[in-house]
Each structure stands twice: as C-alpha cells, then as structure tokens.
C-alpha cells in the first residue's frame, strides 16, 4: 500500500472512533501561584468618615480605622495618607493633605482607629466645580514599608471604607447697611463736639463680626470715596447676627483747627461707613448710598465767631515708595508677601499711621479694588524712610457682584494714611502701585472664573455628600495566600472560537454559519 493510501486509511479509522476533541485551557481561568510563603499581614481600611460640609482652605476632621485581616502582626510603624480628589479614586490631580503614623504591633484581626485634622486645598481641584463634592481618600502604607499578602486593597475600596465625600459649601456672607443716621447739634463748631447716632442692619444670612463704623467728612460738591474724605472718628460695632440690627452712638470731639484737607470748606457731607475694617465686604472703597438721613447728612461746621484757629505748625509729608511682590504670579486663595517703601519728606513725625494695600486692575487706578489688609507704622522721623513687609492672602471667593476671570493681570497698590487722619503738607504722593502681576486660579486655564460668595440674601442649603445607597464592598482575601496573586478576567463567552473547537466537528455546520 502506498504512503498516500496508508494516510487515507488512518484518517478513516480515526473518524470511525469518533470526533477528535480539541481542548484548550485558557489563561483567563488560571490563577498564577507562587510558592507558599510565611504568614503575612494584610492592612485594609474598614471605616472612614470626614466632616460632611466645608469650603476650600478650611480644616476638616478625618476619622478612620485600619484593620489587619492578615495572618501576621505588623512589625513596623506605617503611615496613612489622606488625599483630596475630584473622583472617588486617586488620580494624577489628587492633592496630599496629610499623613498619620500608626505604631507597630497591629495583630491579626485587630483594628487601629485614628482621627486627624487636615486642611482642604486652597482652590478647586482640576476637573471639578467650585461648589461640587471633593472626595477624601485614605491610602494605607503609601511608602510600602509593610510586606503584605495583598497590597491591592490599600486604597480604592469605596465610600465608607477608605473614601468620604465633602460637600463644598461657601460661607454665608454678612451685609452691613446703615439704615439711619442722626447728628447733634445740627450746626457744630470746630473745637466743639458732635454726637452721632446710627442704626446698622445686617441684611444677610451670615453673621457679622465685631467691626468699627467710621464717621467721615467730605467737602460738599465732592463725591465721597474720591480722596478728599477725612475720618473724624469711629464707632465700635458689636457682632450682629443674621437679619438683625443694632443702634450705636458716639460723641466725637472736633479739633480746634480744621484738618488741613478741609481748611477752605464749611459745608460738608457727614457720612458713616458701617464696616471700616472691610471684614464683611472687601470691595474698595466703601461709599454711602446718597440718601439723606440714611447713611449721610449735610452739615455745616464753622470756626466759632471771634476766634482764630491756631496754626497746625510743621507737618509731615508721607510719600509712598516702590511696591514689589514676592512672586510675579499670584494665586487666588494663596498667600504672598509684599514690600513697600514709605518716606517722610516733611518736617514733623506723624506718630503712628496706617498703610493700606489693595488689589487693583492692570491700569493701577485705586478708584476700585479688593481690600487686602492694613499695616501700622509706629512713626517716621522727618527725612527718614521705612520698609514694610506684610503678608496677605488673595481671597478665594469674591462677592457675588464681582466677576473676574480665573487668569488675569493686576497690581498691588499701597495707600499711606488711607483715612486722612494725619495733617500733611501734600496729599498727592501717598499712593504707589507695583508692576503688573499675573493673577491665576490654581489649576485653571482661564476658561472659568474666580469663585464667588452667594448673594447676602441668598440662603444656601446645607447638602450632605452624595453617597451611593449600596456602598461597594471591599475586596478581601482572608485565606492564607502567601504570595498568591489574583487576576480578574471575565468568563469566556460560549460563542468564542475556543468553545466552538471543543465540539468540533459535530457542530461544524454551525461553525461555518457563524464565521462565513
């Protein structure tokens, strides 16, 4: 029999014995095992909760529990890291908030609780809205100092285990408004006294802290807030709860000699500034509403008949010098340092005086800006100069009426003696500005805006973080696994080529129909 005939006969005999079954063992069904090792610990997060509501740059409390579900005691201290993320899992834009160190000695089956205080990032994270939910994640042993049987369950188990949500809730602002003003006598004289009564209302859902109300004189015919204002006294204002009001009164002694800035005037607009410390409204400057009897009153102040005011004598001349910042790019919600020079070009020491700093636009105009802070100089001898180095923080949230792009340009302005309480030789050299500085919201590309506070009369509901009704259960491996590694793969589909070959050739017709 020829070779070809022998092969044909062999095939016929094989077919007569039944179909040839080809079986393949897929890698998807295998568990790759290493040699069994010594018992090892296995650290997992078993609970994690945080403060439910907070705003950016505020502190929150985080409490968690780490459980050793392995078969050996932890023999070395390890850290637990706390991250802030825009999603339930840690990603490239997550921010490390802090770490807690747990001691060695956690035995199998034991748990170690911890509580710590961390501060949220100073600005919204990339990929989330200013008022969204920030996810706080717990990562066990991020430095991998503990040799564990399973290092895949140190994070990412889900809400309640190693993740908690914090609802970003901006604070409710206060809004101090002067609703009534009265003065007595109606025609005071220089060297006499004047009694000022005022009613201050907090027309907002936020509580107002203690502040001071400034009593200001502006020559008639000049708009308040344009540089010709002189503060002649202040009134202490107590804390005012939401939608409440207080009545305040103060007797102010007028100087015998009119202030240098008001020497040539006798008709004035006397007005009050409810929040002279800019604690509730950082928009600069504060000006009255223009309603007589509400927050301003026209008044005549004259020199007593038959008297001549004594001269003011030698006067200082406080001049603003160069202003610089610690960085050319300033971030909203972040701190920075400023450096400003003040010179006394006059002939007298003014005594203590205030230097004010405001954030203004790229033009450098101080007609409008954002109040940053005040610093006090104890005094300055004639011909001397001093340098002030205050540290300020750009506000993260602006009043609801202010809209600024998340990327812009501004300047830092210095105003010496902003309330004009010191008599000086000149008043036109008391302001200076820095060079242009970039203003950015961290993580923004300029397509968004600086976050805002709610409107004072807008009540924000306090929302609890959104938590799934069924929290995902953690992946826990309790059996002695040594160096065992688990690979998750979906089960093979019954329509796969592998399944078809296992029944070949009894279903060869179905195979042809499926793939041809």
Report on this structure.
This protein is mainly β. The protein has 3 domains: 126 residues, Immunoglobulins (Immunoglobulin-like, Sandwich), CATH 2.60.40.10; 125 residues, Sandwich (Immunoglobulin-like); 123 residues, Immunoglobulin-like (Sandwich), CATH 2.60.40. Helices cover 5% and strands 35% of the residues. The protein has 3 helices and 26 strands. The strands form 6 sheets. Strands 15, 18, 20, 21, 24, 25 and 26 form a 7-stranded mixed β-sheet that branches. A hairpin with a 7-residue loop joins strand 20 and strand 21. It is elongated and about 145 Å long. The two termini are 38 Å apart.
Keywords:
516 residues, mainly beta, Immunoglobulin-like, 3 domains, seven-stranded mixed beta sheet, five-stranded mixed beta sheet, 3 helices
């Amino acid at each position: 029999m020829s070779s070809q005939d022998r092969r044909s006969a062999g095939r016929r005999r094989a077919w007569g014995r039944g179909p040839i079954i080809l079986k393949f063992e897929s890698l998807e069904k295998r568990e790759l095992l290493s040699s069994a090792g010594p018992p090892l610990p296995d650290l997992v997060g078993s609970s994690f909760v945080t403060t439910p509501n907070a705003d950016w740059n505020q502190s929150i409390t985080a409490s968690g529990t780490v459980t050793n579900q392995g078969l050996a005691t932890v023999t070395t201290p390890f850290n637990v890291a706390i991250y802030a993320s825009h999603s339930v899992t840690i990603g490239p834009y997550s921010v490390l908030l802090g770490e807690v160190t747990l001691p060695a000695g956690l035995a199998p089956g034991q748990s170690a609780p911890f509580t710590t205080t961390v501060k949220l990032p100073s600005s919204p994270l990339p990929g989330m809205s200013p008022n969204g939910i920030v996810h706080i994640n717990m990562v066990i042993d991020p430095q991998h100092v503990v040799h564990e049987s399973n290092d895949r369950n140190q994070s990412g188990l889900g809400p309640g285990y190693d993740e908690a949500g914090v609802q970003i809730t901006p604070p409710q602002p206060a809004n101090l408004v002067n609703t009534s003003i009265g003065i007595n006598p109606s025609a005071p004289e220089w060297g006499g006294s004047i009694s000022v009564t005022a009613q201050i209302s907090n027309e907002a859902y936020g509580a107002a802290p203690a502040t001071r109300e400034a009593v200001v004189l502006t020559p008639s015919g000049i708009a308040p807030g344009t540089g010709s204002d002189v503060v002649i006294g202040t009134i202490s204002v107590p804390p005012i709860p939401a939608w409440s009001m207080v009545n305040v009164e103060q007797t102010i002694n007028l100087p015998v000699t009119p202030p240098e800035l008001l020497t040539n005037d006798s008709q004035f607009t006397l007005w009050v500034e409810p929040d002279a410390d800019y604690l509730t409204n950082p928009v600069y400057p504060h000006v009255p509403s223009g309603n007589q009897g509400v927050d301003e009153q026209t008044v005549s102040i004259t020199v007593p008949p038959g008297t001549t005011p004594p001269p003011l004598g030698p006067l200082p001349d406080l001049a603003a010098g160069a202003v610089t910042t610690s960085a050319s790019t300033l971030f909203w919600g972040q701190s920075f340092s400023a450096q400003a020079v003040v010179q006394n070009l006059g002939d007298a020491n003014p005594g203590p005086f205030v230097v004010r700093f405001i954030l203004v636009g790229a033009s450098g105009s101080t007609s409008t800006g954002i109040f940053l802070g005040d610093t006090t100089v104890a005094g300055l001898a004639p011909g001397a100069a001093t340098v002030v180095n205050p540290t300020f923080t750009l506000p993260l949230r602006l009043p609801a009426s202010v809209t600024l792009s998340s990327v812009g340009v501004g300047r830092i302005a210095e105003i010496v003696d902003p309330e004009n309480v010191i008599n000086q030789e000149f008043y036109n050299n008391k302001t200076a500005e820095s060079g242009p500085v970039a203003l950015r919201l961290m993580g923004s590309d300029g397509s968004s805006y600086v976050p805002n506070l709610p409107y004072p009369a807008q009540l924000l509901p306090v929302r609890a973080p959104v938590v799934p009704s069924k929290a995902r259960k953690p992946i826990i491996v309790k059996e002695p696994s040594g160096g065992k590694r688990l690979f998750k793969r979906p089960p093979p589909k019954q329509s796969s080529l592998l399944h078809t070959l296992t029944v070949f050739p009894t279903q060869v017709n179905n195979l042809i129909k499926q793939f041809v």
